[in-house]
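User: Sequence recovery, please. Input:
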């Protein structure tokens, strides 16, 4: 039975790495498309820069996974905070005051979560299995 289990684990790891590879390739293509659009328009907006930052966070998250085979929970939180900030920047004229407050509060809660996670990692570091 051990061989069957080892085979299933190997297949799952392969699927995981292929999926992350596809995410990486798609992200690089999206960065290229965004840069081409900025060059074509001869204009760079803050929203464009925040989108590029989101792409870089995705690339960093994939790179960290390929190096350590661990996915830090902080990176999706960073991506969510930047995405929400970008949402406010793009749609603030169409949003009501309460919507802006709600999105801003969400960003604040995500930032507090990151701070709590960082504190937990510093205070209670994980023990390496190796």
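Assistant: Recovered sequence (130 residues):
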């Amino acid at each position: 039975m051990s061989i069957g289990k080892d085979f299933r684990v190997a297949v799952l790891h392969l699927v995981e790495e292929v999926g992350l590879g596809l995410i990486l390739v798609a992200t690089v293509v999206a960065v290229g498309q965004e840069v081409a659009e900025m060059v074509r328009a001869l204009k760079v907006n803050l929203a464009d820069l925040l989108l590029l930052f989101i792409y870089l966070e995705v690339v960093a998250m994939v790179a960290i996974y390929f190096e350590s085979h661990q996915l830090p929970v902080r990176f999706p939180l960073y991506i969510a905070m930047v995405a929400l900030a970008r949402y406010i920047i793009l749609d603030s004229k169409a949003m009501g005051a309460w919507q802006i407050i709600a999105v801003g509060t969400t960003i604040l809660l995500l930032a507090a979560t990151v701070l709590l996670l960082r504190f937990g990692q510093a205070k209670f570091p994980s023990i390496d299995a190796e």
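The radius of gyration is 19 Å.
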